[in-house]
Amino acid sequence: MTGTPWSAALFDLDGTLVDSEQASQAAYGAYFASRGWDVAPEVRRQFSGRRGSDVFATLPGPWSGEDPAMLAASVVMHLDHDTHPPRPIPGAAEWVRLLHGIGVPIALVTSADRAWAEYALGDLLGVRDCFTALVTSDDTAVGKPDPAPYEAGAAALGTDPGTAVAVEDTVAGIRSALAAGVGHVIGVTSGSDRPTLLDGGAHRVVATLAELGDG
């Protein structure tokens, strides 16, 4: 890759750069079981790509009436990375370094908190130095699919979102990027299948970021 048509790159984290969905879904399952709640897998999947507190606040369930932030914090306490270790998505770190090496500014736009984002980018992927900005759940009042996270990411890089690329693995993330006016949105099938991502609005879908090495 000798150049790119994009002014900046905006990356989701979980499911896009790091394979952590198994740990996340197991945490939700463990927490719900601890409460005696029978929550179907298809309902648990609605939490993918979104801030847990946002979903708890809007999705009907046995948690209705409880504090969404406290519920989300309780789920995090059930994360077990020893049993379900997060791993880099193939080609993710390499593509981030490639873009950074040719001078493309990069921001992270994630529904996770800052502590996890710093750990994942630094300890797991070794690409923290490639990111100019991190937009996490701590930085916007609302999360994906609202445009606020991607608007914040573009603003942090000082770029027009219409000339940027976003990389996502969920429909919630794709819709957030599109609503923010991001000009090109790439879906990665690590989190959802190709038809789902295309129906969600992705301009291009790839199996791994390694496919993007030639631009």
From TrEMBL:
One Pfam family, short name: Hydrolase
Listed name of the protein: Sugar-phosphatase
InterPro entries, A to Z: HAD-like_sf, HAD-like_SPP, HAD-SF_hydro_IA, HAD_sf, PGP-like_dom2
Organism: Haloactinopolyspora alba
GO molecular function terms noted in the UniProt entry: sugar-phosphatase activity
